[in-house]
Design a protein that fits this description.
With 331 residues, the chain is largely without helices or strands. 12% of the residues lie in helices and 10% in strands. The N terminus is likely disordered. It holds the Pfam family Glyco_hydro_45. Its EC number is 3.2.1.4.
């Protein structure tokens, strides 16, 4: 059985050999430190599920939880008490645009990169780690995106793309709490599902997380990432349209990983009671995704060293060491 190239974030297309490719090198440069099973005391007891993974900072969650068992919620952004989604996964980030340029130089193909959730029940891994190439209505280039999450609300043939302030959903780690990545309340973040609905509203967002230096050093801004998604037409506004805010989404015209003939189908998210099939929807909840939980993954389907998605600290850029999930064999 062939291994899928899991959790490179983003992907190469055609899929590159595990551990190679410009995208892997590009994002690896943001790691905070060199880590591994030995650093967490897991090597001697044979409990290093994700041996060979990239290094990172050590999570020190309650009760000794660390690595891929780092909690999905934290009481504070001080210290490394919880795991979060990474902000340089966001559509249009400096890291992804750099990876797109590398891919264009190596493969001669001009595309956008991204991550999110693909709705499927037919895949034994529920899409986790798989890459999908999409043609999207109104978007000038194909999007190659990796599915790193699952969700009960993501329908078949739908892709939920992480974009700037795309909607925090039911599990919000972005704003409004003591352990939220960004300071302040939820008021400026728009709809729970869909997020900010006009480009003008992007300017009301905080520009960077509470621990802001890594995002600023990367050359990113939440405001600019939000505006970029409007300019590239991966989100549509409901302003002055019948269904109202956060009801409109672009149609996925073709999705080539699963060889589906989607031409002729239409996203109808603006219609009451309609499913989100064939829609490119949007999200950004800042929360540890499904692909970062060991029990969601089948190791025989994943590439060595990339079996678990590598999450970030509360700054959204510093990677956490996810080689194992215990300290000193106390799993």
């Amino acid at each position: 059985m062939a291994l899928r190239v899991a959790f490179l974030v983003a992907c190469a297309w055609p899929v590159a050999e595990a551990g190679t490719g410009a995208t892997n090198r590009s994002l690896a440069q943001s790691n905070a430190s060199v880590g591994g099973c030995g650093n967490l005391g897991c090597s001697s007891c044979g409990r290093c599920f994700n041996a060979g993974s990239r290094g990172g900072a050590t999570c020190r969650g309650p009760g000794g939880s660390t690595g891929y068992n780092c909690p999905a919620e934290a009481s504070s952004v001080n210290g490394i008490l919880g795991a979060y989604a990474c902000m340089d996964w966001t559509f249009g980030s400096s890291a992804l645009r750099g990876a797109e340029a590398d891919f264009r130089g190596q493969a001669g193909q001009d595309v956008y990169f991204g991550v999110g959730t693909y709705g499927t029940s037919s895949d034994p891994q529920r899409g986790l780690g798989a890459c999908y190439r999409m043609k999207v209505e109104g978007v000038d280039k194909d999007i190659i995106a990796q599915s790193i999450n699952t969700g009960w609300d993501v329908h078949g043939n739908q892709f939920d793309l992480q974009i700037g302030a795309g909607g925090t959903g039911a599990f919000n780690q972005c704003a409004g709490g003591s352990g939220s990545m960004f300071a302040g309340g939820k008021g400026s973040w728009g709809c729970t599902y869909g997020g900010v609905d006009t480009m003008a509203q992007c300017r009301q967002l905080p520009s960077a997380p509470q621990r802001s230096q890594p995002m600023r050093q990367a050359g990113d801004s939440l405001v600019e990432l939000c505006e970029y998604s409007f300019r590239k037409n991966v989100r549509l506004s409901g302003a002055d349209r019948p269904a109202g805010a956060c009801k409109y989404n672009p149609t996925i015209l073709d999705l080539s990983r699963v060889m589906l003939a989607l031409r002729g189908q239409k996203c109808e998210s603006e219609n009451p009671g309609a499913s989100l099939s064939y829609c490119l929807t949007r999200m950004m909840d800042c929360r540890k995704p499904s692909g970062a939980f060991k029990d969601n993954l089948r190791p025989e389907l994943m590439a060595p060293g990339k079996k678990v998605l590598q999450t970030c600290t509360s700054d959204g850029y510093t990677r956490i060491d996810v080689s194992c999930g215990c300290s000193g064999c106390m799993c």
